[in-house]
Amino acid sequence: MANSLDQKYVPGSENHVGQQMHRCITQLFPYHRSNAGVGLRQTLSDLQDILPIKVHEVPTGTKVFDWEVPQEWRIKDAFIADEAGQRIVDYCDSNLAVMSGSLPIRARMRAAELRPNLLTLKEELNPDWVPYRTAFFRDAWAFCVSHKQWARLNQDDQEVFNVVIDSEFIDGSLTYGEVTIEGQTKETILVYAHCCHPSLANDNLSGVAVAAFLGKQLLERVARGDIPFKTYKIVFAPATIGAITWLAQNEKMTANITGGLILSLLGDAGGFTFKQSRVESSVNRAVELVMHNRNTPFEMRPFSPFGYDERQFCSPGINLPMGCFMRTPNGEFPEYHTSADNLEFVSPEALADSLDVVTEILATLEQNFKPVNLHPFCEPQLGNRGLYRAFGEHDDRGRFQEAVMWILNQADGTKDLLAIAKHCELPMKLVREAADVLVEHELLGFSEA
Ligand code: ZN
Question: For the chain, what are the domain ranges?
Fold first, then answer.
């Protein structure tokens, strides 16, 4: 399990993992990602420098459950200019300036006509911030502007502007990327990060960076000969339609998924938040156990069908044991879905800390299984089986013996090791070690339940 001290960010240490993740976010930040298309492809292609992502293209029009893979939205240029040709709003300055999915338009219009197509934030929030808005699955166009720009465009109802959005929708494909790190069993831990937002750092890119570096560290672990107990699968795809597409294309393999996390919003300075899976699950128990032992602000929230792709992964027909792990939740910080969710808003320290916590949660989940006592009629004889010798060889003899006794008692096939660790208040690592010794001595089996 990762040692939190190893992960501490030291300013100036350029190769620290926090810095590496921040550099990754900086590289991906300018791409104009959306739910399909060039920016999404470029993002996945760049991530291939970090880990061997397999890229899949699902053609426009492919039926995915109740949805269809959409067309790709492409944009070349967009602006609002005054009569003198001065651009007041310019897509070249920020790809947030146009509502994603906007229809094309080329028109001269008066300020009063243009106004319904301007989206802005309240002046008191910040006069320079621009909102991030999308319009996929509806026919509309709009510009996203700061309050200052809005005020300039609304000086005079009769002022005429040149309004251009040079966009198009084309048949293409939706792109997603995945990497599988084979473990000792087919049981799979799924990590999912959405990567469909344009220049937003905390929302989408922080989750992408943590997932990518988690994968990189797992591959380094494999290279050292330390094969994970379970298989890990890391998926990068657009939110909503990407998750729906991935699930439709991978429905069969979801039977192997025994837990996982949806990662987002992991680079801000706030405390951690975990939105639990829809039903009580091992992932809820793993997060609870890890966060209980960490001296860091943390909030556990019950499942709700809003927010990120827990809506898809925890829909009743899919119902995976997955929850969403974040710092400050979506919609609960002023920079959310605005131009202020930028490279300064996410820090190497927060990213490194997030990676450390996520690694520990998944390592805990990885050690989990549901044990069954193979000699459940009274206590088995431990001496005859050499168990006392095993106790003596353990560094923490007292607590190790305690873990053995608890497991033998609790392993009735209804509880997993996480539930047992919680019940007896012993570290998961120790409980797993005790379980391994009991399996080795044929006192413990794996429950099918
Ligand atoms: Zn978002």
Answer: 17-70+173-366, 74-170, 369-448
